[in-house]
Description:
This protein is an alpha/beta fold and 325 residues long. Helix content is 43%, strand content 14%. It has 16 helices and twelve strands. Strands 2-1-3-4 form a four-stranded parallel sheet, with helices on both faces. Strands 6-5-7-8 form a four-stranded parallel sheet.
Amino acid sequence: xxxxxxxxxxxxxxxxxEGTDLKAEIRRMCEEKRAVVMAHYYTPGxxxxxADFVGDSLALARKAAETDADVIVMCGVHFxxxxxxxxxxxxxxxxxxxxxxxxxxxxxxxxxxxxxxxEHPGYKVVSYVNTTAAVKALTDVVVTSGNAxxxxxxxxxxxxxxxxxxxxxxxxxxxxxxxxxxxWQGGCHVHERFSAEAVARLKAERRDAVVMAHLECxxxxxxxxxxxxxxxxxxKYAEAHPDRSYIVATxxxxxxxxxxxxxxxxxxxxxxxxxxxxxxxxxxxxxxTLLKLYNTLRYGWPEVTVSEDIAADAVKPxxxxxxxx
Length: 325
């Protein structure tokens, strides 16, 4: 009965037996079940430590497409698990907590996008990967923050494009490519909380520091950034310049990997709007815990599935993205 109640809640929170080494048990079960654990940079540090592979959305998608494991456990948010299932329909895809959603995905419902497309005949749809499978099924090509500029640049110059759901990323891509894509008015609730005022204040205090900002940030924040890009772009830049100090405007989970790769480097998180200090975190990513990962492998649940009629169309724009990027 308790297990059924946990299932209704979208995750299994059963305590592990006393004295259990969770990481060791996770590794044992991965070997036993031919499972691979993937984690996004925004998940808690101990979850990243337990993963076989840690990356951003593009890297995780590529790894899912390549893996020969029978089971994929995606520690991230729901759309990432859906993407894994679309690319690996024959594999079992698990997600430690089905409640791990995404404000961007929630901001663009498939029925609303279908209506918008009907109002703009002749337009192709470029969708950010932070969308549901149902939205991807209405999409011509998917992009990530790491490849959006490159993919959009490869599309015909005279193509009429709708970009969604992140208006900030779309606005940036319009600016750097000279496109005039119609922008869906969605936004990431974490990156929307960064303000230009907070970045400017930190920059005034630390004039020697490099400002790194994610492309989901507002244009006023990006205007103050020295490095603009995806989480992978930030990591790459910091590794190449470890002697600098950095002001970081993205979800705070990336600090764990930044500090792991550059242990002697100072990273200063930009606090959320109207906060003098502190970190800006995604509560959905933080739903991934070591105990939930352990239970997910133990019970083989929660499993993420995508209906065949949606999957047949939704996988096509992802495959096109991987071809173009």
